[in-house]
Amino acid sequence: MPSDQEIAAIAAAIRAAPAIIPNEKCDWSTSVPSPSVPGRVVELQIYDAPSIASKSSTQRPAIVNWHGSGYLVPRLGRDAYLARFLSKNLDLTFVDADYAKSPENPFPAGLEECIPAIRWTLEQPWFDGNLVLSGLSAGAQLAVSLSSKPVALQLGLTEQEFSKIKATIAFYPVCDSTIPASEKATNEGPVPLDIPMSPLSRELMEFFHNCYLGWDKEVQFKLARDPRVSPQFADHASFVPLFVIACEHDPLGAEATKFAADIAKHNDKHRYYFAKAVGHGFETRVPEIGEQGFVDAPGSLAKKEAYDLIVAFLKDNVASLN
Known about the structure:
The chain is an alpha/beta fold and 322 residues long. Helices cover 33% and strands 18% of the residues. It has a domain at 101-317: Rossmann fold, CATH 3.40.50.1820. It has an 8-stranded mixed sheet, with helices on both faces. The protein is globular.
């Protein structure tokens, strides 16, 4: 096991790596106290539909989203374009929520911080009673785990609060942390120009795993089978309708595909999309739909199909969107 100083140095280097952050900004922001980290607040960035005045009391549904991070990298704001697309096309409010990161705040701090973000949204005077959860990569795991009723209740949501969650969107989620990084189909190395993706080496995935669950192998073995960490180990019949997006060139693609197939046996409202010719984080590396150059960009077909299917899925499962 590396020393605390070595872990901190590696984490700092990963966080300092160049990242694709949109120029798009939220309409307004607020924060709620963390239930897990004394003195910390959880930032919420809010995107309102252009058809609705910001902070208007007009009744509307909401999406609460958690960004990808490897449970380590602060990337709040990364999903601004997704927020704009969904808020504009569905006339809803998109709440992009931060969460505590490891190694400073390992499991379960980040997951526990999802609860006040959900609760804040449910308490807003404009909220119409229809909530969608959303996430990408590590953030998708948080969203998916919270979509299982027993897990959500264990984390502190009430039955009434959980009943407001109508559906969940999961981009390339972590589904089974028992699978060693050494057994995952890494996409590391130089990124091919025609495959939009974020490369994930086995070493990087292993470091994320250790920082999040701790370096003790016995503890890791136990936690990796906890539904709060690995949705694959939750009751497959306990989930709200899920839309799972897996990618062809993604180390997490196989586990996301298996998870989607397993839960589909219990609920025909679940949906799955396999994004071909793209990899982890692909949507941030493809121009926005409608922008100049989008049509001819590698990955544009996968992005458009995924986004169109998300809109259709939400309209099928959220009554107030129809």
